[in-house]
Specification:
heterodimer, A: 8 strands, B: 22 helices, 11 strands, 14% strand, globular
């Protein structure tokens, strides 16, 4: 049972640990946090993208250049979500169909939740799941909330006259299945211990004490 | 008699390029806006009530105590555990595994079951797990120099020697105080709407204040158990001289780099306060007298303030000299003089070191609570506000912002050994933040993203090869390694005081300046560096205890030390 702060920090470090840049790692931490705030399995969604990247190497970002539907190359929900945010002005008011496999599509929702303090609404749907955010609230329908992979994905983002409505965040914490993997990846960002590091790195003796 | 009528002048805030350099930031002092003072002001005004519902402490000072405090809407409790600690285990480092005292700030009043749960976790600190009902986790170690002396004196019915108290300043020092969701603690998200915790570090400041109360009670209790009817309590004026120490390492430094929008709020509030006072056309005799009194107290404090570290010895020498000069110059300013504080400030810029200039900036705020204190409510921010990247921004705009606001970053040569001598990292050893020597130590490939200047310059150089009118989102598709810097650059337009304008990996960089800057916002005093990256401070020295908060709160308590003798 972890706090939002722990979830954000762990996912950020894990993303860096699998080789993403610090900037993308920051996005990763926030995606996990935003989903967890709504009691959705944020870290487990992030895990799917990070595991894919760890197993297959980094996606080359240029797969997105000018096209949303290049056939045959799987995309991670994590990077796809960040891409939608970055290209918001280009994707507004259109119904975008991703026809390639999407790994961990719930992360797309986590990224779009960044828009919750602005006047936007969105809908993301895949097989047996639709998630919407608009001035009436945040709604999840269907049971296939955090699939490992989906064959296609539909995203629409619109400007809205009002900020979306959210109920008060739940303080309850959920268990996280993928925590061990995230811990292992996060550990890759730490410098191994050495006598020199221990002696000099912090600027104080072991027994700094008076 | 001079006319009191005066035309208004508009004083601009000091610019980021004037303020945001480490030597100046590292010369900051506490102010009326400091978080400790914000907290005590609230506790006094709102007449918070204190109680000690649990005191289960053995004769030698070990056991459990609970200190509760009740405000207008909510109650909080410090749950503290005092344990025997062998001398060879006592360490202020993050890598320590046992402490004299451990504590948590609990949301409400804990029942027996809650206390039992906390007893199984809080003493283990990072190895334990906390719940959302706990807001702060921390620990403290006894001052080996002072604890036994005070116990012995009190048990014999004597007061501790003032000099001993002055030399150390505290009986225990905290060595880590965690909040904001660490180790399972409550997230700030769930606290920020509580008015008493809305401003930064208020929960942490409350926990530390209550620890100070506990420590003073504990030392008197142990002395009474040893001395019986011969023992005495510490005389109230001397009692206030005991603050609570804090030993701080590099963990504080990354905070102000990693939270630019929050840091901007702190600096902006302070700079706004300074500008407002400089705009005052005429000072009254009461204001002048108050300033003179606090100036004298500040000078006396600087004389008592000692340090063994060469950096601080030099700074203290400058501070004492500067304060003396301020005293002299202020005598030449008359009550009817126009814009007296601005005159004083302008004089200070020419005649004083940074230590003196910043001490003066703190001092001139003191007579003007009405002008200044409201700014304390502007020192927090939703840090997500500026986080989303606007991908449609043209690369040329990013280049222009860098040229305009990050020219300092472009001036450094990061290819030299001196230019990139250090790297910031997190050790796998209890995740202790450390600073390495890039050309002498392993691990620089795992560098934390704190080399802001170098990374901004790399972004700038990469953008030179990219079409100026293309969207930054397209650039980041191919060069995601620059993403964190693009965000900083775009965010900077809104938070210009959020960026330290120095090379944070250079050979001459002194992390101690970053520590001192942050600690000054806490309200810390008596900075005593142990190295260029490790500092001891004193918190709440001279602060009123709970019984003194409500009946006769002295808002100028940080300056009241010289009244003791």
């Amino acid at each position: 049972m972890y706090s939002l702060g722990e979830i954000e920090a762990q996912c950020k470090k894990a993303a860096k640990g699998v080789g993403l840049s610090w900037g993308l790692a920051e996005e990763t931490g926030l995606i996990a946090r935003h989903l967890s705030e709504l009691r959705l399995p944020g870290p487990d969604a992030i895990y799917l993208s990070l595991k894919f990247i760890d197993d297959n190497g980094l996606e080359h970002p240029s797969i997105y250049e000018g096209s949303f539907d290049e056939i045959g190359k799987p995309k991670t929900g994590l990077l796809l979500g960040v891409f939608f945010l970055d290209c918001l002005s280009d994707v507004l008011e259109s119904n975008i169909k991703i026809k390639d496999p999407v790994i961990g599509p719930l992360s797309v929702v986590g990224a779009l939740l960044r828009l919750q303090n602005e006047q936007y609404s969105f809908s993301v749907s895949w097989d047996n799941c639709q998630i919407t955010m608009n001035e009436d609230g945040f709604n999840v329908s269907g049971k296939n909330i955090n699939p490992k992979s989906v064959g296609s994905l539909v995203v629409s983002i619109s400007e809205s006259s009002k900020e979306p409505f959210f109920l008060k965040r739940s303080i309850e914490r959920s268990s996280i299945d993928s925590w061990d993997f995230l811990t292992k990846m996060a550990h890759k960002t730490y410098v191994p211990e050495s006598p020199m590091s221990r002696l000099l790195g912090a600027g104080a003796d072991d027994n700094e004490n008076e | 008699m001079k006319s009191l009528k005066s035309k208004k002048i508009k004083i601009s805030l000091r610019t980021p390029s004037e303020v945001m350099h480490l030597p100046r930031l590292g010369s900051f002092h506490q102010t009326r806006l400091s978080f400790m003072r914000q907290l005590l002001r609230r506790l006094a005004v709102e007449k918070w009530k204190f109680s000690i519902p649990v005191w289960d402490i053995s004769a030698d000072g070990y056991g459990t105590a609970v200190y509760s405090v009740k405000g207008p809407e909510r109650e909080y409790s410090l749950v503290t555990f005092s344990n025997y600690l062998p001398a060879d285990k006592r360490s202020d480092r993050v890598i320590a595994t046992a402490w004299d005292v451990t504590f948590t700030l609990f949301d409400g009043i804990p029942d027996t079951q809650e206390i039992d749960r906390l007893k199984k976790n809080v003493p283990f600190q990072e190895e334990g797990r906390l719940n959302a009902t706990e807001l702060v986790l921390g620990r403290a170690n006894k001052s080996v120099r002072l604890w036994n002396k005070v116990v012995t004196a009190l048990s014999e019915g004597k007061q501790p020697e003032l000099k001993d108290v002055e030399d150390v300043g505290y009986l225990m020092r905290t060595t880590a105080v965690y909040g904001s969701g660490k180790f399972g603690l409550s997230d700030r998200t769930f606290l920020k709407d509580r008015v008493e915790l809305a401003m930064p570090f208020q929960a942490e400041m409350l926990a530390v204040y209550l620890v100070r109360c506990f420590v003073l009670d504990l030392v008197e209790f142990v002395a009474f158990e040893q001395g019986g009817e011969n023992a005495c309590k510490i005389e109230p004026k001397l009692r206030k001289r005991f603050g609570i120490g804090n030993s701080t390492g590099l963990g504080m430094a990354p905070f102000i780099v990693n939270h630019p929008s929050l840091f901007d709020r702190w600096i902006r509030a302070r700079e706004t306060a300074i500008a407002r006072v400089r705009e005052i056309p005429i000072m009254t005799s009461e204001e002048a007298n108050l300033f003179s009194m606090l100036l004298e107290s500040c000078y006396q404090n600087a004389i008592c303030w000692t340090s063994q570290h060469p950096i601080q010895i030099s700074k203290l020498k400058n501070l004492r000299k500067d304060l003396k000069e301020i005293k002299g110059f202020f005598k030449s300013i008359c009550i009817g003089d126009q814009f007296p504080w601005n005159k004083l400030y302008d004089w200070a810029l020419i005649n004083l070191t940074l230590e003196g200039q910043e001490a003066l900036c703190s001092l001139i705020l003191e007579p003007y609570g009405d002008l200044v204190d409201g700014l304390s409510s502007e020192m927090a921010i939703d840090e997500n506000k500026y986080f989303r990247l606007d991908g449609k921004l043209a690369c040329g705009i990013i280049i222009n912002i860098i040229k305009h606001s990050f020219s300092w970053a472009l001036e450094y040569d990061y290819k030299t050994q001196d230019g990139q001598a250090r790297f910031w990292y997190v050790s796998e050893d209890k995740l202790e933040p450390r600073l390495g020597q890039r050309f002498e130590e392993d691990g620089s490939e795992l560098e934390q993203p704190l080399a802001i200047g170098r990374d901004i310059k790399e972004l700038y150089e990469a953008l030179q090869e990219w079409p100026l009118n293309d969207k930054i989102a397209n650039f980041l598709m191919l060069y995601p390694q620059h993403r964190h810097c693009v965000r900083r650059v775009t965010e900077h337009r809104e938070v210009p005081y959020g960026e330290i304008r120095d090379n944070l990996i250079g050979s001459n960089m002194k992390p101690i300046d970053m520590l001192r800057c942050k600690l000054s916002f806490f309200g810390a005093d008596r900075f005593d560096p142990r190295s260029d990256r490790w500092v001891r401070i004193c918190m709440y020295q001279n602060a009123p205890f709970p019984n003194e908060l409500v009946c006769a709160y002295d808002d100028f308590w940080p300056y009241s030390g010289s009244k003791v003798s």
